[in-house]
Amino acid sequence: MKYPDMDKIYRTLPLDSIPWNIEIPPAALVGLVEQGRVLPCKAVDLGCGAGNYAIWLAGKGFEVTGIDSSPTAIAIATKKAAQKGAMCRFVVADLLGDLHELQGETFDFAYDWELLHHIFPQDRERYIRNVSALLGPGGKYFSVCFSKDDPQFGGSGRFRKTRIGTILYFSSEPEIRDLLEPFFSILDLKAIEIGAKSGTHIAICSFAERR
Q1: Domain presence at residue 102
Q2: Domain interval for residue 162
Q3: Backbone φ, ψ for residue 73 (5° rounding)
């Protein structure tokens, strides 16, 4: 099974038709910041897309680096940040690669929003290992991905195809726990409802600390 060409999506589709491109930051991320569970620090947005949430975090006092595999998305994010006067840095990199673009840099907080369900099971350990390597000791990791109990995109089967051709993998809570525990101490792991352009989704929300 091959990954879709994400850069083609950003090159050919209007931003408002890309399902995950939502300007307003999600309530779960906002709550994490407003409740003080993550304080302003050096942060990395994994799979940042057009940079919406990185720009929002920068406005809250975070020093944010956004990473995405799509050069077009990174160009959009860079332009948007400049227009809004947000102090963000955006980098093109493969999150399943060696991340040499970051030259060994580490962060205090890493997050991905609706990214993990784009990563197939056989590649997830490599991804989480990379996330762990990007964090300093005690660094926090926040992730939200679609649950196997989500009724969207056909409502059955672990692999489901979206209207724009992306293939998503829908996870269980035990899967996410088993994925994280070799690298992180899990602080919170639960099912939540999240809003999306296609309607409400059931998602798995995890918050963890690097071992």
Answers
A1: no
A2: 119-210
A3: -60, -40
Integer-rounded Cα radius of gyration of the chain: 16
Q: Global pTM?
A: 0.96
Query: CB-side exposure of 165: number of CA atoms within 13 Å?
Result: 10
Q: What is the pLDDT of residues 156-206, one digit of tens each?
A: 789 999 999 999 999 999 999 999 999 999 999 999 999 888 789 999 999
User: For residues 92 and 104, what is the distance between their CA atoms, to the nearest angstrom?
Assistant: 15
DSSP, res 5? -
Residue with tokens 């600390």: 209
Q: Is residue 136 part of a domain?
A: yes
CB atoms within 10 A of CB 63: 17
- Helix crossing, 173-180 with 121-134: angle to 10°? 50
* Domain co-membership, 64 together with 138: no
